[in-house]
Amino acid sequence: MSGNTFGTLFAVTNFGESHGPAIGCVIDGCPPGLSLSEADIQGDLDRRRPGTSRHVTQRNEPDTVKILSGVYEGKTTGTPIALLIENTDQRSKDYGQIAQQFRPGHADFTYWNKYGIRDPRGGGRSSARLTAPMVAAGAVAKKWLAERHGMVFRGCMAQIGDIAIPFESWDHVPNNPFFAPVADVAALEAYMDALRKAGDSCGARIRVTATGVPVGLGEPLFDKLDADIAFAMMGINAVKAVEIGAGWNSVTQRGTTHGDSITPTGFLSNNAGGILGGISTGQDLEVTIAIKPTSSIISPRQSIDVNNQPVEVVTKGRHDPCVGIRATPIAEAMLALVVMEHALRHRAQCGDVQAASARSRDDAGAAAAVPQASFL
Amino acid sequence: MSGNTFGTLFAVTNFGESHGPAIGCVIDGCPPGLSLSEADIQGDLDRRRPGTSRHVTQRNEPDTVKILSGVYEGKTTGTPIALLIENTDQRSKDYGQIAQQFRPGHADFTYWNKYGIRDPRGGGRSSARLTAPMVAAGAVAKKWLAERHGMVFRGCMAQIGDIAIPFESWDHVPNNPFFAPVADVAALEAYMDALRKAGDSCGARIRVTATGVPVGLGEPLFDKLDADIAFAMMGINAVKAVEIGAGWNSVTQRGTTHGDSITPTGFLSNNAGGILGGISTGQDLEVTIAIKPTSSIISPRQSIDVNNQPVEVVTKGRHDPCVGIRATPIAEAMLALVVMEHALRHRAQCGDVQAASARSRDDAGAAAAVPQASFL
Amino acid sequence: MSGNTFGTLFAVTNFGESHGPAIGCVIDGCPPGLSLSEADIQGDLDRRRPGTSRHVTQRNEPDTVKILSGVYEGKTTGTPIALLIENTDQRSKDYGQIAQQFRPGHADFTYWNKYGIRDPRGGGRSSARLTAPMVAAGAVAKKWLAERHGMVFRGCMAQIGDIAIPFESWDHVPNNPFFAPVADVAALEAYMDALRKAGDSCGARIRVTATGVPVGLGEPLFDKLDADIAFAMMGINAVKAVEIGAGWNSVTQRGTTHGDSITPTGFLSNNAGGILGGISTGQDLEVTIAIKPTSSIISPRQSIDVNNQPVEVVTKGRHDPCVGIRATPIAEAMLALVVMEHALRHRAQCGDVQAASARSRDDAGAAAAVPQASFL
Amino acid sequence: MSGNTFGTLFAVTNFGESHGPAIGCVIDGCPPGLSLSEADIQGDLDRRRPGTSRHVTQRNEPDTVKILSGVYEGKTTGTPIALLIENTDQRSKDYGQIAQQFRPGHADFTYWNKYGIRDPRGGGRSSARLTAPMVAAGAVAKKWLAERHGMVFRGCMAQIGDIAIPFESWDHVPNNPFFAPVADVAALEAYMDALRKAGDSCGARIRVTATGVPVGLGEPLFDKLDADIAFAMMGINAVKAVEIGAGWNSVTQRGTTHGDSITPTGFLSNNAGGILGGISTGQDLEVTIAIKPTSSIISPRQSIDVNNQPVEVVTKGRHDPCVGIRATPIAEAMLALVVMEHALRHRAQCGDVQAASARSRDDAGAAAAVPQASFL
Questions:
Q1: Which among A163, B235, B310, D342 counts the fewest CB atoms within 10 Å?
Q2: How big is the CA angle at B91 (ends B86 and B95), to the nearest 5 degrees?
Q3: What residue in B sits closest to D221 (Cα-Cα)?
Q4: Which tens digit of pLDDT belongs to each residue from D316-331?
Q5: C13 and B22 in contact by Cβ < 8 A?
C-alpha cells in the first residue's frame, strides 16, 4: 500500500537501499512444488549486474542471491520465498557531498519533500539498484511459467540515443554488452565512447516480448493485462513511455489496417501486441519502452540545496552513461511478474472454463488453432 | 481483484454492461463533508456522452446519474457513494448477428475464450460505455481536489489520424466537438467527414494535464505516480501507448538536456512531466496517450466464428469513427482518480511531514518557492 | 480500503443506508457459467427480512432483489454482479428526534466523531439493514459452493438470553421464528413476550456450520480460515465474541483431550472446529458467535447530545427485541463468503497440487478416507 | 494475498521457517521521522523469547533483531523496514521422525494436503516461532502510537487451565514468568509443574488492552476495529476464541445493562470494550482470547502417516506445556498493529474532520470531555 509490493497473488515485497547492508525481496504466493535453487536466479542477476563492460557503471557488485525461506529440499513449499542480496561495494564517500543538494533529474528533491528525510547514499531507495531483487523475483516467475506453460520472455535494445537498431536475431542479444539483436555493434560502441568522453548521457528504447502466453489472461475493467504491463514498465527507473503492439503508430493507422484479421489458423498480424480488451489473445506480447538519459552526469547542472539556495551540481561517482543498457533483463523480469500474476488470477476465477470451452468446440466438431486456455 | 475496482483508498467499483438495465459505480473512501449533488457530476458526463455531434456515435443516451447513497443533506458522509446510470437506448437488434462471431480488433474473441461465455449486446462489458461511471467518479475526485488543493484537470486533442493539432489555448477546447485547443476546426471536420464516407476510422493522440498538484504524491518503489497514471491510461478502451513528460523524445535527448534544472524560484523546464522518482515535483503533470482507430467499421473484415469457421464481419450499428474524440473527459477523469488516490495515501503515511519540512526551512531562514506538501 | 468491500477474489462491495433510496452490493470475481436468477437469491433474503413474526421488528420491507449486471441469459459471465434492493418502508419521522443525540450502545457517537457528519435516519449506514446485501451475496456463494463442491451452510439459535437451546435437529430450524433446532419453542415465545413487555432486550448465541469443505482452504500466516471467519463474524452488527470448535472450552481442556486423533478413516473428534494451522481439515467448520442485546429499547437511557449536554434517550420506532433472532441467515452468508474466497484463493496458488498429492497416495497404494483437495 | 502480509497501510510481510536460516519481516508504510534502533525492538522480543523459565520451551534462541533497511541516521525514512532474526538453535534431529507423520492438533496434515509438500523441521512455517517477527513489528507500531498519540498496550494472563487469575495490578505482570497480574504465583507454578510431570499441557486465557486510543478508529462496514482485532487474534497460533468487551456475557445481559451510558464527562461503563459500530469510542480497548493446550506433548497420540497408515505419535523435543504463557506479548503486538493500521487509514480519509468537529462544538459553546479525533 506504500508501494513496495508488486503484485497481489504473486506478491513481491522489495526492501533495501543502495548503500544499506542488504537489499532483497519476499515473494508470497509462489505455487508449491517448483524446483528452485539460487542457481536458477543468479543467471538473470548476472545479466543485470554492474561492472560487466566499460559501457556501464564500474561499481563492482557480485549480487549473489541467498534464499532464506520458502524452499525445502530444493522445492518451493508455497510459503514466502525471501531473497537476500548483500551490498558489498558501498563507496559512500562518493556521495557525501550531495546529501544537502538536489541532483536534477533525480528523486532527491521529491523524496526529501515527501518524507522530510532521505537516505542520500547512492540515491538510497530511489537507486536503480533496487531493480536487482525484481530481476531475482522475475527469474522465479519465468521458471514456473516456462515449466508450466512453456512461456519464454525476451528483450532487446531497439535504439540507443540517435541510433535505431534493426532486429536481426535474438541469437545476437547475449553476445554484446548492449543486448542488441545485431551481429555488429561497432557503431554502438563508438557512440557510447564518444558520449562518455563528452561527459553526457543518452536515452534508449527497449523491446520486450513474451511467447507462449495462452489466450485469456487479464482482468478487465481495470486490471487489464496491458494496463498492468504499463504500470510495471513505467515503474522501472527512468522509463518515460510505454507502447503495446502498434503503439503510437495506432494514431495514424486506419481501422481497416489496425484491427488484426483472424483466420481458423490464427491472427494475420499483431497490431494488438497480443492483447484485446485487456485480455491476452494467445499471440506474442509486444511491449516497447522509452528510457530517459542518465541523470547522473559529470557536466555541471543548475540546482538548489535543502535551504533553497542555488548550487551547481556535478555528479561524480560511477554511473551508467545509458541506464537503458542494463534495463533489458529488468523489463523482462517485470513482464514475467505481470504474466505470472495474471496466470494465477485467471486460474482462481476461471479454472473451470476449459471444460465449457472445449465442449463448445467439440459440439461444433472443430478445434481452434489459436491457443486455448489451459489452466485446469 | 477481478479487476473491476480502481484505486484502493479512493476505490471505484464499476459494474454494468452496454445493454443491461443500468451501469454505475460505487466510490468507497471519499472524505466526508464534501458538498455533492448530481449536478456536480452531470457536467462531465454530458461532455462524454454520445450523440452530441455528427462526428460521434448517434446512440442517444442522456446518461443521467443518480446518487443512491453516501450523501446526506447535500454532503458526503464518508460512506460509499453509489452512482447509477440507467441504459435507455438499447437497440440490441443491431448486435444480434455478431453473437457468434469475433469482430477483429474487439474483445469478443478474448472474452469468449477467457470466460467461456460473453454478453454480445453492444460489446457487453467491454464496451467503452463503461467509461461513463469513471467520468462520474472522476468528477467527484476533481471536486474534492479543486476545493481542498486547488487542482485543475484538463485535456485536449493533440492529433486526429494524420492531422497534428497545435496547442493554441485551453479556451477553445469546449467550443468544438473534438476537444481541440484551436479556434478553427474546419480541417478536422472535413477529415472526419471523408473518413466516415470511406467507411473507415482513425486513431488519435490526447494530452491531459493537472495543475496545482503539490510536491510529494506517489509511492515508490512500485506505486509510483507515473506508474499508476500509465496503468489508468492504458486501461482506457483503445489506448495503446502512454507518455509522461518528454516521453519518447527522452530516447534521443542528452542528459544535459533532459534533467530539468532547479532554481530557488522553481524548475526551468518540465521534461519530467511533473514526476521524479515516481513522486510529484509540484510542476504540472503532463501525460499523452495514443488511441487506436475504432474497430467497429462497416468495411468488411476477415474473422472466425465460435466454431472456428471463417466469416466476413461487417459491423453496422452506431459507432464513433474516432473513439479518441470522446476520450478527453475520460482521460481527465482517470488522471483525477489517480491523483485523488495518492493524495489520500500521502496523508496516511506522511501526514506529519509538513511540520518537519517547514521547520527545516525556517531554520534556514528561507522559504522555497516550489510547492510544498500541505496535507495536514 | 475504507472498509466497504468484503473479500478480495470474491469481492463484495456494499453500499446504502437504512433510509436512503436503495441498498445493494457489487460482487466482483464470481466464476463464469453459474446459473443465477433473482429467485436463487430471494430465498435467503426472505429468511432474514423483517416483519415475519411478532418477535422481530415490524418494519415491512419486501427486500426484493434485482440483478443489474453480470448475468446473461441466466448465467454469470464473470463480470461484476450488481444487486439492488430498494428501500420501500422508510418512516423517517420515527428517527428525526435522535439526529442530535447519541443512543447508548449504538454507533451514533462514533460515526459523528469519526466523520463529523452522520445520516441519522434509522441508523443510516450503521443499521443492521445493510446485512441484507451480504445475505444476497452469500446466496450466490452458497450456490456455487454447493454445485461445485457439494458444500452446505447451516445455522441455528443456541441460546436466547438466559435460555440455552439444545440441538435436536436441523429439521426444526425453518419451522419456528427463532431458527431454533428444537420442536417446541413455547418457552422461547413466552420469554420473548415477557421481555418485550418489560421494554427490554436480550442477547443470543448462534451456531453456524459448513459441511463438505475440502481439506486445504486457508492462507497462513495471517489469512487463516479461522482468522477470516472471526473477521467476518465479528463484523456482523452486535457480535461481541467468536469461537471456533472447542472455543473457550480449550482453556480448561488438556492437550491429551483437545488434539483430535486421526485415523485412516477420519478424525475421531472435532475440537479444532474443522481448522488446523489456519487450513481446513475436511471436517465440518464449527463456529459460534455471541450477539449483544438490542440497543434500541424504549426504556429511558442516559446519554449526551452533539453539544455534549446530558439527555435522556428513549428509542421508539420498530426494533427487534433480540437482534440475534434474525442473525442466523446473516452468519451463514458470511461464512459462505469466507469459504468462497478461500476456494478461489486456493485454486490460484495450489491448482496443481492434486496431481502430486494423488500420486503420492497412489505410490503408497492407499487412498485417504479424509477429504482431499479437488480444485483442479 | 497468500496470507503472509498483515495490514495494508502499515503492512507487515512475514517470512521464514522454524529451522531455516532466518526469520523476519518487512514493514511497509511506517511514517517517516520516527526514531528507531534495534534496542527499541529487542525489549519485546526478549519478553517473548523461549528459554526464560522452566515453564516454557528450553530452546535457546537469543532472537537478536537486525534492521536491514528503512532507517537512516537513527530515523525511519518512510521506506520499507526489513527486520532479520537469524535462527541459531536448530536441533532438527528432534523432528526428523515426524516428517512422515501428522501430529494431532498440529498443522502437519493440513499443510501437507494443501501444498503437497511441507517443511517438517520444527513445524516449519506453522511454528509459533513465526510470531517473533510480529512482536518486532508490533514494537515499531507501539513506539509510533506512544509518541504520536500516547497510547499504551498491555496484556496479562487471566486464566491458566483451571486456575482463574484475578486482576490485582499491571505492576505484577513483568515480575513472574506467566505475565500474571498477581503478586503470588506459587499456585500457578505448582500447577504447571504437575502438568509437565504428567506429560500433558493446558490452555490459557489472555487479556489485552489499549489505553489512549482516540475516538474514530475503524472502517465500517467490514474493516471494523473489532473485526480486525478478531482477525488478528484468531490468527495467532492456538487461539480458538476472541471476545470484545462484555463478550459472551452479552448473551445473558439485558439491553438496559449492556448499552454503556454516556455523560458529558465520559462513559459510565465499558461493555462495548471501547468499540461501537466498529469504531473506537475513546475508551480502553478490551480484548480476551482463548488459547488451546499445546499440541506437542509426550503422551502418545493416535494418528496416520502420509500413506494413510495408522501410527502412534509421541512428540519429543522442547515444547511449552502452555503456549499461552508466551502469548501475552504476541497479543499486545497484534493489537498494536491493528490500531496502527487504523490510525493511518483514518488520517487518509478523515484527516480534515477535526476542524468541522471542533467548529461544531465551538458553535455550541461547549467542549466534549470524551476524547476527540486528533489526527491532523
A1: B310
A2: 120
A3: B79
A4: 766 778 999 999 999 9
A5: no
